[in-house]
């Protein structure tokens, strides 16, 4: 082989090598840029929803205080009308008093040897309810009886002789969202419990729910498969099912999934990502295969009063992104 031929061959191989290197670098650069673009869009989507969540929490807190103040006034007015001995009070009397002071119902709670139960009520379905399994609510009742004030419970609103829990599903009527107040001044043998069950509360919770924003997001961007609100305190606990439902933690304040759906879950990976996003206060992104579908998942923490309250998960279809890389 002549020198000229060898040089031509070497030059051809060199050019081919450079061309292949350029194509490879271009592919990976394109791949990285596309993934960055996808991640940016996911974070932007989650950020928009996070803003809605923060506004919802602020609005709910404001409404919570307003209803709490109303219930405190109602409790004090009820105390003026009720006999200090529960044996001298009838359920019919409580029904009439409820209308007079402008609340939906009034219940009276008494302490037993190992529980606090509803002994009288204008709502028949409330009578006999045990509160032993109500968590910090039960603690609040015990402290009211013991100290005439709630001392250790941080949730809800505390006042002199008074405590009000946050908006919550009713135990006796699970489809209803109620607001309760609890009053005990040490001058009677029961806690006065007025509560409000209003369509206004339900409508307010529905209008301010992030689910509305999630629905619009999914409609406008078909690449986004799912958006999920995650409660980092209960997500992935022993009682949570694969679909995110939980027979133990089902209240507004402790549900593992606070809004959206959890159909594209990979529980162990997701638990790790949720924990990491909370610890670093930053978003976490990774690729996963779920239901034989390759997806891009992101987890973005939401803070309220400088505390992480939720993590928003956004799941995007990886296939369009993969096709874009192939075409380029």
Description:
This protein is α+β, with helices and mostly antiparallel strands. It has two domains: 60-202, Beta-Lactamase (2-Layer Sandwich), CATH 3.30.450; 209-327, PAS domain (Beta-Lactamase, 2-Layer Sandwich). The chain has seven helices and 13 strands. The chain has helices at 3-81, 91-101, 136-147, 199-208, 210-220, 267-280, 319-327, and strands at 105-111, 116-121, 157-159, 162-164, 168-169, 177-180, 182-183, 191-196, 224-230, 257-260, 284-290, 293-304, 307-317. The strands form three sheets. The protein has a five-stranded antiparallel β-sheet with strand order 2-1-8-6-5. Strands 10-9-13-12-11 form a five-stranded antiparallel β-sheet. Strand 12 and strand 13 (307-317) form a beta hairpin. Helix 1 runs antiparallel to helix 7. The model has no long low-confidence stretch (mean pLDDT 82).
Q: Which terms would index this structure?
A:
328 residues, Beta-Lactamase, 5-stranded antiparallel beta sheet, 13 strands, elongated
Strand content: 15-25%
Name the strands of the widest sheet in spatial order. 2-1-8-6-5
Tally of DSSP helical segments: 7
Number of separate domains: 2
Q: Main β-sheet, in a few words?
A: 5 strands, antiparallel
Mean model confidence by pLDDT: 82
Kindly, what is the distance between the CA atoms of the first and last residues, rounded to a whole number of angstroms?
39 Å
CATH topology value of the largest domain: Beta-Lactamase
CATH architecture type of the largest domain: 2-Layer Sandwich
**Under the CATH scheme, which class of the largest domain?**
Alpha Beta
Number of strands: 13
Shape descriptor reads elongated
Cα radius of gyration in angstroms: 29 Å
Helix content: 40-55%
Helix and strand sequence: HHEEHEEEEEEHHEEHEEEH
Structural class: alpha+beta
Low-confidence stretches: none
């Amino acid at each position: 082989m002549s020198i000229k031929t060898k040089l031509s061959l070497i030059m051809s191989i060199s050019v081919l090598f450079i061309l292949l290197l350029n194509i490879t670098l271009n592919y990976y650069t394109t791949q990285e840029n596309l993934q960055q673009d996808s991640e940016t869009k996911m974070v932007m989507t989650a950020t928009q929803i996070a803003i809605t969540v923060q506004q919802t929490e602020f609005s709910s807190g404001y409404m919570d205080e307003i209803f709490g103040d109303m219930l405190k006034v109602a409790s004090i007015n009820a105390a003026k009308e009720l006999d200090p001995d529960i044996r001298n009070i009838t359920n019919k009397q409580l029904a009439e008093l409820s209308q007079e002071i402008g609340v939906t119902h009034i219940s009276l709670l008494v302490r037993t040897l190992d529980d606090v139960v509803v002994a009288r009520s204008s709502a028949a379905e409330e009578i006999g309810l045990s509160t032993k399994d109500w968590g910090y609510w039960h603690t609040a009742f015990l402290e009211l009886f013991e100290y005439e004030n709630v001392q250790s419970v941080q949730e809800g609103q505390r006042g002199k002789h008074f405590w009000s829990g946050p908006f919550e599903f009713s135990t006796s009527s699970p489809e209803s969202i109620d607001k309760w107040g609890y009053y005990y001044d040490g001058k009677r043998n029961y806690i006065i419990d007025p509560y409000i069950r209003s369509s206004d509360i339900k409508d307010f919770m529905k209008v301010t729910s992030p689910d509305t924003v999630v629905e619009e997001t999914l409609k406008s961007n078909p690449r986004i498969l799912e958006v999920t609100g995650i409660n980092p305190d209960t997500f992935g606990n022993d009682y949570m099912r694969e679909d995110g439902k939980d027979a133990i933690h089902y209240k507004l304040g402790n549900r593992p999934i606070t809004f959206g759906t959890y159909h594209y879950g990979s529980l162990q990976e997701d638990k790790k990502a949720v924990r990491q996003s909370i610890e670093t206060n930053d978003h976490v992104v990774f690729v996963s295969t779920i239901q034989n579908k390759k997806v891009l998942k992101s987890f973005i923490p939401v803070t309220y009063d400088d505390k992480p309250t939720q993590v928003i998960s956004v799941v995007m279809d990886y296939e369009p992104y993969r096709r874009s890389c192939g075409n380029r």
